[in-house]
Q: What sequence folds into this?
């Protein structure tokens, strides 16, 4: 059994990774419906929250249907992180997560996110202060260290545990690696051996088999999936089924993929309005419709449309046309 704060899981939890501009309310709901055990918001700027910036506040909008959910915050100052943690706690998530992994120049360059790997004393102060300030289980997400020569994850994990966090997600890459190279799951295992809190392994988990592999290699308590869930929310239920039975569920059919794409679109429009909600779906179409013939052409068409009915009709017509074309070709070949 895995316990994170008040949450308990009989199997290793399979978690949706926080991803900026991806894990919005609509996508989180879709992933929860397909079996994600915990979902996280995109990271939210502590300074943005304090200044009541609309985009930051909007990212914290959560619904009961998506619980358990964690709100993730980032920043580089103890006072503003504590203030932001209290604001986030008022939105009543199940978990509050601190980002110690973002590698971007804008974030890490200002000493926040993975930038805090360079200042572990400040990371400790921020974590301790947040744990003391909020009445919520606090979790954190970090990387192996700053670079190959500075793998500090074992010390970081011990220090964060001593501050009172309830679980730690470790992405098996350094800050310098960003997204490059292969995630190193062995180092996640080294950190796991050094602490008692649950460790969630992350990095390059795409298939149910990858989930079993990371749990085996790192002996970690759960797995977090990011890019593997793009256009593929089924991966959560598939991984859980595979863990429980050793059997692989069949891949969703094209009809199922279109159905979930349209549900996702509907939610996106419901929570962001028709124009913005449909435009922001642009990045998801290709993922749901992977393998469809002439996808580039279809995506270009979809990007010009901004209503649910037009988008739905365009996809259905395109697929019917492709099917008819396919059957026509087959009949000429067999004639
Ligand atoms: C588009 C995108 C946005 C991301 N935004 C965040 C974020 O807001 N907070 C965070 O902790 N990690 C963020 N990440 C990192 C992911 O949570 C995850 O650690 C990373 O993608 C590796 O996991 P994967 O190989 O399963 O994708 C982001 C990743 C991507 C691809």
A:
């Amino acid at each position: 059994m895995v316990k994170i704060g008040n949450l308990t899981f009989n199997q290793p939890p399979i978690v949706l990774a926080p991803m900026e501009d991806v894990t919005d309310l609509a996508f989180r709901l879709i992933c929860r419906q397909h079996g994600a055990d915990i979902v996280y918001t995109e990271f939210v700027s502590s300074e943005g929250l304090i200044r009541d910036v609309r985009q930051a506040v909007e990212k914290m909008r959560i619904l009961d249907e998506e619980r358990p959910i964690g709100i993730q915050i980032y920043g580089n100052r103890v006072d503003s992180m504590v203030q932001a943690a209290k604001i986030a706690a008022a939105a009543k998530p199940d978990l509050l997560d601190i980002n110690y992994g973002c590698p971007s120049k804008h974030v890490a360059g200002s000493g926040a996110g993975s930038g805090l790997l360079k200042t572990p004393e400040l990371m400790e102060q921020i974590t301790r202060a947040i744990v003391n300030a909020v009445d919520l289980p606090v979790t954190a997400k970090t990387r192996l260290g700053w670079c190959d020569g500075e793998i500090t994850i074992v010390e970081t994990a011990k220090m964060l545990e001593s501050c009172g966090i309830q679980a730690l997600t470790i992405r098996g890459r350094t800050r310098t690696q960003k997204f490059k190279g292969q995630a190193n799951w062995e180092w996640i295992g080294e950190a796991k051996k050094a602490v008692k809190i649950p460790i969630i392994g992350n990095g390059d988990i795409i298939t149910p088999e990858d989930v079993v592999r990371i749990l085996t290699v790192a002996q970690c308590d759960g797995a977090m999936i990011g890019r593997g869930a793009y256009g593929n929310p089924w991966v959560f239920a598939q991984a859980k089924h595979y863990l429980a039975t050793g059997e692989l569920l069949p891949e969703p059919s094209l009809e199922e993929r279109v159905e979930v794409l349209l549900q996702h679109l509907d939610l996106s429009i419901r929570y962001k309005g028709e124009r913005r909600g449909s435009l922001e779906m642009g990045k998801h179409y290709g993922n749901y419709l992977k393998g469809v013939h002439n996808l580039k052409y279809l995506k270009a068409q979809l990007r010009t449309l901004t209503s649910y009915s037009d988008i739905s009709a365009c996809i259905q017509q395109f697929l019917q046309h492709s099917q008819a074309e396919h059957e026509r070709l087959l009949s000429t070949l067999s004639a």
Summary: Strands lie at 2-4, 7-9, 14-16, 38-45, 69-74, 95-100, 138-143, 167-171, 199-202, 222-225. The domain at 2-245 is CATH 3.20.20.70 (TIM Barrel).
